[in-house]
Amino acid sequence: MSKRTEFNDALKAAMKAGDQNAVGTLRLINAALKQKDIDARPSGKEVTEADILSMLQGMIKQRKESIQIFRENKREDLATKEEAEVAVIERFLPAQMDDAEVAAIIDKLIKETGAASQKDMGKVMGALKTQYAGQLDMGKAGAVVKQKLG
């Protein structure tokens, strides 16, 4: 089942269940996906499942940053709302890898791509994005790649 179908089925189920938080979050996901489709039109490329997973991770990252800001400003109500949205979005991501798994995969990709220095970081990050989209935090992975190639 494609992610698009999964989102629409989840939206219907949330509407029937009266789960307003899930309905709102799923509508945000669909809106972001439509925007991605619009952005991809000029190039003629289709939005892939990996692109969708990357989009979902970006949405989670934005919300986690907002949660931190809301907590710093004593707005627990808004932080709680954002956390609920993160929980809904995370349902559509594959299980996240732990730090040891990420390090092992990066070591493997460094060997496969023949990366030797930080100049080759793009090769490794590109392979990570295509093969493991949605399964790990690309920001953290980038720091690990930089450390291993540095």
Shape: globular
Q: How many DSSP helices?
A: 7
What summary fits the major beta sheet?
none
User: The CATH topology of the largest domain is what?
Assistant: Hypothetical Protein Yqey, Chain: A, domain1
- Average pLDDT, rounded to a whole number, is 89
> Strand content of the residues, in percent?
under 5%
- Share of helical residues: over 70%
Structural class from helices and strands? mainly alpha
| Poorly predicted sequence stretches spanning 5 or more consecutive residues | none
Report the radius of gyration as a whole number of Å.
Answer: 18 Å
In total, the number of strands is: 0
Query: Can you tell me the CATH class of the largest domain?
Result: Mainly Alpha
Number of domain units: 2
By CATH, the architecture of the largest domain is named Orthogonal Bundle
Order of helices and strands: HHHHHHH
How far apart the termini lie comes to 41 Å
CATH homologous superfamily placement of the largest domain:
Uncharacterised protein YqeY/AIM41, N-terminal domain
